[in-house]
Design goal:
The chain is of the alpha/beta class. The chain folds into 2 domains: about 180 residues, Rossmann fold; about 170 residues, 3-Layer(aba) Sandwich (Rossmann fold). It is built from 14 helices and 13 strands. It has a 7-stranded parallel beta sheet, with helices on both faces. Strand 11, helix 10 and strand 12 form a beta-alpha-beta unit. Helix 10 packs across helix 13.
């Protein structure tokens, strides 16, 4: 089995793509080649994982200036040609598009050559690259049932998530000190960091004994650490948390962004969450993801524009004061988990290679 995985740019694209690649290699001894761009995180993560990477030159078309869009349109024919050359040389059985800059040209080149294609889409609303090819792909693996309206041949598989998140036991009903986990992705989120700094005094008054684990990112670490030291509230402040499953296990409630990977980890762990969607995410996909969990009763959504200290303190304290609601949110989150996502995606790929 020979597979091309195209796309990248951010960890939300690349990390699930690598998990899919490793599953296909393990299950079918697949030979996997990645297609990406020089500007994406794939240039670091894919070689580290031991997979070959071919680069094409293509930029963004969504939410960019006219000049950037014009440059991308100028680069697009070359990106299609380069993608086609890579596919001709490698001769894959299936091309998997995971979204991101390189995904569109590679998937279009595969469709033109009648190579079977699989779109992987972890967000409720597909990104631009997957929407571009949605009507022509052979199959689509998605995280949310609502996403299937975009793809003719669709299966809800969920997002690949490390087994350690599924192994987290249910939280006790706050029989210990309540613990809040705050994070904004590997780089942190300045809006969340600042809101927490402003909320520490109110949280100390309303929730005696509260302990907070806070991943700040490098940029805001010193300011956040100083704020905790001055507040008198117990806080573990980290630039980056290496063992996130273990940290999830210690936490009763999470405050975080709502990218697809984070949502997948939260459902796998069955953790109640306060989502603060990144307001400038492409197609507002973080807000749509967060609202899907809110409708299911698994999360509360706080718009960044409403992220004032008083509102945040009231929201956190109301949830931590209601253990039965936290337990209900946890069960709702867990019901949305997909522990067999990798196996199901691999099965879809195999059926494209060997049609039944």
């Amino acid at each position: 089995m020979r597979i091309v995985i195209a796309g990248g740019g951010t960890g939300g694209h690349v990390i699930p793509a690598l998990a899919i690649a490793q599953q296909l290699k393990k299950q079918f001894a697949a030979e996997v080649l990645f297609i990406g761009t020089a500007r994406g995180i794939e240039t670091r993560l894919v070689p580290q994982a031991g997979f070959p990477l071919e680069l094409i030159k293509v930029g963004a078309l969504k939410n960019v200036s006219l000049l950037t869009r014009a440059k991308t349109m100028f680069d697009l024919p070359r990106a299609l040609w380069t993608s086609g050359r890579v596919l001709s040389d490698f001769n894959p059985d299936v091309v998997i598009g995971v979204g991101g800059y390189a995904s569109g040209p590679a998937m279009l080149a595969a469709i033109r050559r009648r190579i079977p294609t699989l779109a992987f889409e972890p967000n409720v609303v597909p990104g631009f690259a997957n929407r571009l090819v949605a009507r022509w792909v052979s199959a689509a693996a998605v995280h949310f049932e609502e996403t299937c309206e975009y793809f003719p041949h669709c299966r809800v598989t969920g997002v690949p998530v490390r087994q350690a998140f599924f192994d987290i036991p249910p939280s006790p009903l706050l029989s210990r000190r309540p613990t809040l986990l705050v994070f904004g992705g590997s780089q942190g989120a300045r809006a969340i960091n600042q809101a927490m700094i402003e909320s520490l005094g109110g949280l100390r008054q309303k929730i005696p004994g509260l302990q907070i684990i806070h991943q700040t990112g490098q940029r805001d670490f010193d300011n956040v650490l100083a704020a905790y030291q001055q507040s008198g509230i117990y806080g573990e402040v980290h630039q980056f948390i290496d063992d996130m499953p273990r940290t999830f296990a210690r936490s009763d409630l999470l405050i975080c962004r709502s990218g697809a990977s984070t949502v997948g980890e939260i459902t796998a762990a069955g953790k109640p969450a306060i989502f603060v969607p990144f307001p400038r995410a492409a197609d507002d996909h973080q807000n749509v993801n967060a609202r899907a969990l809110e409708r299911a009763g698994a999360a509360v959504v706080v718009e960044e524009s409403n992220l004032g200290a008083a509102y945040l303190v009231d929201t956190i304290s109301a949830l931590l004061a209601d253990p039965s609601r936290l337990q209900s949110m946890s069960a709702a989150a867990k019901s949305l988990a997909h522990p067999k996502a990798l196996e199901e995606i691999a099965d879809m790929v195999n059926k494209l290679v060997e049609p039944q």
